[in-house]
Amino acid sequence: MSDTIPGVSMDRLVARQQQLPEPSQRDVVFDVDDLGVTYSGKPALKDVNLEIYRNFVTAFIGPSGCGKSTFIRCFNHMNALIPGARIHGTIHYHGTDLYGSEVDPVEVRKRIGMVFQKPNPFPKSIYDNVAFGPRVLGMTDDLDGRVERALEQAALLDEVKDRLKASALSLSGGQQQRLCIARCLAVEPEVILMDEPASALDPIATTRIEDLMHELKQDYTIVVVTHNMQQAARVADMTAFFSVERGEEGHRTGVLVEYDATPKIFTQPSDSRTEDYVTGRFG
Amino acid sequence: MSVTTLRAERPRGRTSSALFKAFLYVSIGVGIATLGTLLVTVVAKGWRYVDLVLFFEPPSADPQIAGARPAILATIYLGLLLIAFSVPIGVGTAIYLEEYANRDRWYNRMLEVNIQNLAAVPSIVYGILGLAFLVRGLGLGRVLLAGAMILTLVVLPTVIIAAREAIRAVPDSIRQGAYALGATKWQVIWRQVLPGATPGIATGSILALSRALGETAPLLLVGALTYVSFDPTILGDFTALPVQIYQWVARPQEDFRILAASGIIVLLAILLTLNAFAIWIRNRYQRKW
Fold this sequence. Notes:
CATH architecture of the domain at 10-120 and 194-278 in chain A: 3-Layer(aba) Sandwich
Largest sheet of chain A: 10 strands, mixed
Strand content of chain A: 25-35%
Largest sheet of chain B: none
Number of strands of chain B: 0
Low-confidence stretches of chain B: none
Structural class of chain B: mainly alpha
Number of helices of chain A: 11
Strand content of chain B: under 5%
Number of strands of chain A: 10
Oligomer: heterodimer
Low-confidence stretches of chain A: none
CATH architecture of the domain at 72-236 in chain B: Orthogonal Bundle
Order of helices and strands of chain A: HEEEHEEHEHHHHEHEHEEHH
CATH superfamily of the domain at 72-236 in chain B: MetI-like
Shape of chain B: globular
Helix content of chain B: over 70%
Order of helices and strands of chain B: HHHHHHHHHHH
Helix content of chain A: 25-40%
């Protein structure tokens, strides 16, 4: 099984894997234990156990409805905004229970940023979009420098530096998504959650976002949901495969099938469901 | 297959389509004709009395020197007070219902149904409430402030409904984007939702204002006088433009009817300007998310 998925060089995949630290030297950012999510009492995701490591890109893949987007939204309390959503189990963030009673969702979201599926720039200028986070968090000293650095890190500065006052809505879709990444970087989070960040973009814009993930993982920990397997294979160090289980009455619940180093998931998956999915027999 | 099969074989469909179109033209024609007739007759009749006397003189028993100065001023005061009262209360209610209220709670659902119903209550009923509660109950007396408060109640449901729609039109992705950056609920509302909803709120408020300024019945009940010859104050006796028009129309002399027509021209001009302003705001700030 040397080239399981078209368009991905397995040699490069394995070479990249060798640069990763040994399991004993990995720094755990999130420790997820028996996590489950229910919407109005119906389970959407259950029994998830995994660890997410610092400066890794971790990808969640799987068919529609497998709960991968639901899962990524647990890390920054975004599910709390959905009425009827309940979370069971625990997520520890550097040893602190993310859902402990004394934890403030606002503090969590300062440290754990998020980029959404569809670019969602605010209907303001490019500058004001990036400055929004620092402004609401009171990080307003050297705001110009902060905005500039964020745009630079998101590889957008050269394209927009002459028109920072222009509306963010005048940018192309790919530029808008990089603006959303810059907006997220401007508040200096530790983790960046990306929920299918390239699914609304064309292939060139997608490549730029993927390149960006490679660069950003030097400084950040990245968790990315994608339905695109080649993308997971190209960007992720670790990959988690989720699948759908049909409960009684045909209710669909997402489960974690397998979590391992990306080359292993794509070349020697230990679960037959993973193999069926990555080889294109299912999904 | 020959070309002939493409020919219409069911002329019936075309007839009903033509009938429907005709019905639409008639409907719009009725509306335009009514407004046109009103404008033409009123302008033809009252134009010669739209002069400085009308704007700058108090009413008088002599139609030649009678003006509507106190009424015009009072209408302006009423409008300003109305905006000052109804916009904060209306927008506040809309924010609560859209951003905070839990729809599963019975009292929130009751509140919603109530507001919808209040929008349909005839304004004279509000007038009776004003007379009983504001003028007598609170002992406010028959003053301009009581008139402004009762007009506020008349338009509040409209303002709330318009503001709710404007707030709902702000996409959730904007709220989520702001939350994800660590904004608090208040910051999300104040810095993203309200700026996004402002054009809609402004349009709705102006339309409500123009409706209120044309109201006569509730003002008569809370004690707008038909004859006021001095400039109004907030806590004093008052009249309003529609009330003044009503008073002139009721007079037997022909000259006062002409004066009434000129008053209608001024009122219509104010209302049409406000409506045009609302449309301008809507087009100017139309958002494309």
